[in-house]
Amino acid sequence: MTVIEEHAKQNREHSILTRTLDLLFGNKPHKAKTPFEVHEMIEQGFPMEVVISLSHTINLLDDTQALIKVVGMSHRTFQRRKNKPQPLTAEQSSRTWRFAEVLSKAEDVFGDMEEAERWMNTPAMGLEGHKPIDLISTQVGYELVDDFLTRMDYGVYT
Fold it and tell me: pTM here?
């Protein structure tokens, strides 16, 4: 990889980081500026308000079942935390981060958020007929989706 390609890759990754944070926190202040700071935020647990905000912002998450699957909590826990907010666990925060990051990358590839959301909920041949939203619940599935998005971005579909 040339120096120019490496620099472009770093700029794109920074942009994804920033846009993922914006997607999660909107106008609310957050401390993270680097991946290490995001890691620390995830370990401490995102505020429940992040999930509630996502459910209002992302049409794909209008359905409570989709939302609790993405975050990885039961319906009962979601209702309890919605009424009496507590921070997410590190695992729930990590899953929420993966969702927002993939959605930000998909927005880059498809050109707008609406198309990115539609793609997330559509079976993809390059993912053996799985929906991206169903795969990102595990680290391995996230990596499959992330790799597929990268290949689509570069025009390599096989």
Answer: 0.86
